[in-house]
Amino acid sequence: MAGKLLPKLCFWLGLLPLALVATSGDLAHAQSVTAPGEPAATRPLAPDSSGPTGIVAYCPDLQRLVTLALTKERFATIAGKQREGNVLDTTLPLTGWKDCSVYGARTYTCDSQSFGSADEVAKAQTVILGEIKTCLGEGWTEDDDRSSPVYAVVRSSRVPVSMTVATNAEADGYVVRLTLFLRTGG
Q1: What pLDDT is recorded for position 159?
Q2: What pLDDT score was predicted for residue 28?
Q3: Contact at 8 Å (CB) between 114 and 178?
Q4: Virtual torsion, Cα 102, 91, 110, 2, nearest 10 deg
Q5: Rounded Cα–Cα distance for residues 57 and 47 (Å)
Q6: Any bridge partners for residue 152, and if so which?
Q7: What is the pLDDT of residue 14?
Q8: Does the residue 102 lie in any domain?
Q9: What does the pLDDT look like over 44-102, one tens digit per residue?
């Protein structure tokens, strides 16, 4: 049953690349494809993170996270060891990202590689936003009313999933922090 339902769910969500591999029943080794005429990401987040199709390596992981957010279990199936409080490691880190974790039942977060300056991380944030929108496809847009130069909100018009893509200062530089969450209410 799940083998037939997942491709339909992925198609409805606008995750056609994931729907194509979901029919094989092996999501752990899913690979993304780019349809003719679809734009591909221009710069990968991390060196060697772009696959042969031009889609960034973390795209299948991100697509899977969106799908998991909509399931009854949400992120419980990828929750790992306990950290502090309500924070858990994850068994599904985004390829090329670091310090990925699950917070509660509805939130997933990851940090990019480190950057040396605020200018570098701002440029990286712009690239990552483009990569995310390309990866997730139609229906995913930046919410300009809720965004700022250091904080962007990306929302789906089809499902109650959103994410923030923010720049953060760390002890050793700057990172882009992606936080994916299930929206509640309207």
Answers
A1: 93
A2: 35
A3: no
A4: -80
A5: 10
A6: 165
A7: 52
A8: yes
A9: 344 334 444 568 999 999 999 999 999 999 999 999 999 988 899 999 999 999 999 99
Beta carbons of 87 and 41 less than 8 angstroms apart: no
Residue 6's closest CA among 160, 126, 19? 19
Range of the domain at 96: 47-182
Alpha helices in the chain, H assignment, sequence order: 2-13, 16-22, 59-69, 118-136
DSSP state of 74: T
Structure confidence at residue 85 (pLDDT): 87
**Residue 15 · residue 33 · CB < 8 Å:** no
User: Is residue 84 in some structural domain?
Assistant: yes
Q: Torsion over CA of 139, 164, 149 and 100, rounded to 10 degrees?
A: -130
Strands lying side by side in the sheet with 98-103: 79-82, 87-90, 98-103, 107-111, 173-182, 161-170, 151-156, 140-142
Helices and strands (H and E) in the chain: how many = 4, 8
Domain count, the chain: 1
Q: Taking the mean position of all CA atoms in its chain, how far away is CA 31?
A: 15
Q: pLDDT digits over 29-44, tens only?
A: 333 333 333 333 333 3
